[in-house]
Amino acid sequence: MSEVLLILLAYLVGSVSNAVWVSKRFFRMDIREYGSGNAGATNTFRVLGPRAGTFVMIMDMIKGIIAVKLALIIPYYAEPEHLTQLINFQIGLGLAAVVGHIFPIWADFRGGKGIATLFGMVLAIQPLIALSCVGVFLLMLFLTRYVSLSSILASVAFPILLIFIFREQELFYKLFAIAIALLVILTHQKNIGRLLNGSENKVPLFRNRRRREAD
């Protein structure tokens, strides 16, 4: 029963839609009515700017971290000999938070894609793998300037790193990593379509620098 209540709590934590709150509180608008229509960090960044987007991204990551740490409330999972059970339960809690982000009860079940919350979850469970995925994301963003493509490739790198580089033995964790990669691809179908037809928006990484050089 305790596990069920914590999973429900993790879902409620994930349901806190930071993008919707920031857009309504400080910009008098609903972020879901602009841009891609998603209540996530990427759309916030594009519509409201880097300051709001960065804040939303960090807060969404924190949701994943908080959800995972809820497992330690139960003394059983804090014992070293129960590490495998701890990781499995943390995955369940993290997924509940991601589901909450995608279908937030506090925001009419219209949320974002859950990438930042997912990253926060993995960061809390396996920091090295999470940071490796960030490296893949940043490299692809630098090379292509596509946030969506960078997110997709970073998610695909997750199971590859977990299974072949870090040699994870836990079957449930490996299946989880593969499922996450498939989920990210599934939730980015529209982005993939725009990437294929060349209409996907790029992040102007060097716009400000070029302006300064021009001046």
Please give a structural write-up.
This protein has 215 residues and is mainly alpha-helical. The chain has 2 domains: 125 residues, no CATH class; 90 residues. Helices cover 71% and strands 0% of the residues. Helix 4 packs across helix 6, helix 6 runs antiparallel to helix 7 and helix 8 packs antiparallel against helix 9. It is a multi-pass membrane protein. Belongs to the PlsY family. It catalyses: an acyl phosphate + sn-glycerol 3-phosphate = a 1-acyl-sn-glycero-3-phosphate + phosphate.
Q: Could you name the key traits of this structure?
A:
215 residues; 2 domains; transmembrane helix; mainly alpha; disordered C terminus; EC 2.3.1.275; 11 helices; globular
Describe the structure in brief.
The protein is an all-alpha fold and 215 residues long. 71% of the residues lie in helices and 0% in strands.
Average pLDDT figure: 90
In terms of structural class, how would the helical and strand content be classed? mainly alpha
- Low-confidence runs: 207-215
Q: How many beta-strand elements?
A: 0
The radius of gyration computed from the alpha-carbon positions, rounded to a whole number of angstroms, is 18 Å
β-sheet strand percentage: under 5%
Work out the helicity level.
over 70%
Distance between the termini: 64 Å
- State the helix count: 11
Gross morphology:
globular
Largest sheet: none
Number of domains: 2
Order of helices and strands: HHHHHHHHHHH
Pathway: Lipid metabolism; phospholipid metabolism
Main location: membrane
Enzyme class: transferase
Function: Catalyzes the transfer of an acyl group from acyl-phosphate (acyl-PO(4)) to glycerol-3-phosphate (G3P) to form lysophosphatidic acid (LPA). This enzyme utilizes acyl-phosphate as fatty acyl donor, but not acyl-CoA or acyl-ACP.
